[in-house]
Amino acid sequence: MNLTGKTVVVYGAGVSGISAAQLVRDMGGRAVIYDDNPKKSHSTSNTAVFRDCDIVVTSPGVRPDCEILLEARLAGKQVIGELEFASLFCAAEQIAVTGTNGKTTAVMLIDRILRAARIPSHAVGNTGAAFSAVADKLDAMETAVIEASSFQLEGMRFFAPDIAVLINITPDHLDRHGSMERYIGAKANVFLRQAESDLAVYNADDPNVMSLEPVIRAKKVPFSLTRPVDGAYLSSGFVCFKGQPVVCAEDIDFAGKELEDVLAAVAVAAIKGVSFYTMASALASFRRPEYRREECGDVGGVKIFNDSKATNVFSTVSAAESMRGDTVLILGGADRGEDFGELFASLPGLVKGAVVTGDNAEKIVAAARENGFSPVRESPTIADACADAVELAHELDCENVLFSPSSKSYDRYTSFTERGRAFDAAVARLARGEKRG
């Protein structure tokens, strides 16, 4: 894409938008940043800028069906997402990783393994720097490992990663996409424009993922937790690739469905020619990112785990299945239509009780009762929920408390990160023997 003499409006004044604007300037174009919030710095909220532009680059938070973008398309403007825009200026190999759950961890795993193998790798997208911030600075000998959300993938027309990875697809963000079919369609875009010489790594256990198998033209490299496949799989307690053991599952900090991330990373690394020894070493020393079933303290002999990133039912079930020892669960947050009946029907037997807090607390308690799950207690705040969960763990002789809300954070917090910090602070106060409140 030649930007010389072109005017590009970047819609969204967040990190990715500011990075995209700088990329436009670096490529010889004129960049104007627009944001709906008139208080955002470095931007304008005057929609007149769309009339005189040639191209519109959208940030992930901008809905593709908003009136401004519809009018821009009708006026013949090219509208393109920030991630796809960045990819057009990147000479490096591109590995795109998507999925409802586990994207960040899988990207970090792949990046860590490649770096351990002395392959120059850069984790970008929702993980690390915005893709636009580094895309034009990477050469053909380097690798960009890109975390790609459904928001970034919807509407793509050119994006064709050298290696595409799809970890899983479960209901999420349906308020944005409108239906499960459209959500799956957004994820499908990671594969649709690949060539036969490219590679597609995907979860052979996930029916929603497998529904996309007929549209994959790239060389297929499946992975499975349940059976041997022509790729990566779990067998007799070992992570394997095409008949060869790579690492003992007990030697790494992953269990249950979390091992999907490991299998995806192993498949990518094996494709790249990384030795099994290097993979095993990197996996054994890897520690999960913040607020993804992260052990954050010990209160009265009860281990506490912070899984604030769990914003949907399937994330929480996955986290619960990976626990070792009887566990009390802390749930609740913003009400975004989650099916908590499905949650309680799917929880493993080691979850012995739950404490609920947040705007959807009553809904969760009702679902628990309908599914015969008890005991369940309701608490007014996260700090109270933490204290109540420790008390319940002692009563039930449980080893662990798992904070895995199964809900978005927007009832009380701006993000799962802010919520995770609040929970960590509550655990720290309890560990010091301070009273709640």
What does this structure look like?
- The chain is of the alpha/beta class and 437 residues long.
- The strands form three sheets. The chain has a nine-stranded mixed beta sheet. Strands 14-15-19-16-17-18 form a six-stranded mixed beta sheet, sandwiched between helices.
- α4 crosses α11 and α12 runs parallel beside α13.
CA gyration radius, whole angstroms: 23 Å
Low-pLDDT segments: none
- Shape summary: globular
Distinct helical segment count: 16
Structural class: alpha/beta
Return the average pLDDT rounded to an integer. Answer: 93
User: How does the major sheet shape up?
Assistant: 9 strands, mixed
- Based on DSSP secondary structure assignment, what is the total number of beta strands? 19
The rounded distance between the terminal residues' Cα atoms is 57 Å
Percent strand equals: 15-25%
Widest beta sheet: strand line-up: 6-7-5-8-9-10-11-12-13
Helical proportion?
25-40%
Task: Record keyword descriptors for this entry.
single chain; about 425 residues; alpha/beta; 9-stranded mixed sheet; 6-stranded mixed sheet; about 20% strand; globular
